[in-house]
Amino acid sequence: MSWYTGDPVFDTVLAIGLAFAIVTLLGSIFVPAPYGRFAQGSGINLHPKLGWWLMEIPATVAFLWFFLGSDADGWTVTTLVLAGIWILHYGNRGWFFPLAIRAAPGARSSFSLMVMAMGMFVTGIHGYLHALWFTEYGDHLTPRWLSDPRFLIGLAIYALGLFLILTSESVMRHLRDPNPAPDAPRYRIPHGWGFRLVSSPQYLGEIIAWTGFAVLTWGLPGVMILLISASNLVPRALATHRWYREQFPDYPPERRALIPYVV
Predict the structure, then answer these.
(1) How far apart are CA 220 and CA 163, in angstroms?
(2) Does the model's pTM come out above 0.85?
(3) Sign of the CA dihedral running 145, 69, 228, 175
(4) Nearest alpha-carbon partner for 103 in 57, 29, 166, 45
(5) CA gap 154, 160 in Å, rounded
């Protein structure tokens, strides 16, 4: 993986993104990002559907803007396959997932404006960097790359992570009735799929998926989003596991926080 591309804007944005991963880790260690069960009552908050959609949508918009603005004559089958993986991921993450959220009773304004703004920043530079990596700076992304072991291994890892994300989100979405009674419990213990082993399989899925993505694209932009995701999700998974154990005396004792049988 190369560091400098010779494009001062691209290289600077990449450096900022890598530095932001460190800031994210330091902040997440002390205070989980204020959304979901860790939402705070103070400050400006948004409805979860709107907050998630606004946070994730720059990844789609920025990617398409710079991807479609590149020289189409230089596109290869590999470029289009990678773009397809991107659209698949953010078709779910930026569109289906926010719209399918079943907000808990009383959670009309539980998504922090600060979290949304930082998320928009990350997803925006994420989309920008990968659009240019696919079309201009990933010199190795030729048609032969699709048979390279790094692409095949990375794709298998990514697919495993995406499967874990989708099944975990489905379990969480169906925990709540679409029309809950006023006295319905806000949270329940999830069961099935990855929840049989860990408290946050959706976070594990994200980390696995971005690990595979970094390998299959073989570039520092992929490493950047992996580091930012892990810096946020690992501390949050540990905090979520503690929260479940504190809230539910009958919480399954065999579950780990993030890594089955380990942590």
Answers:
(1) 24
(2) yes
(3) negative
(4) 45
(5) 10
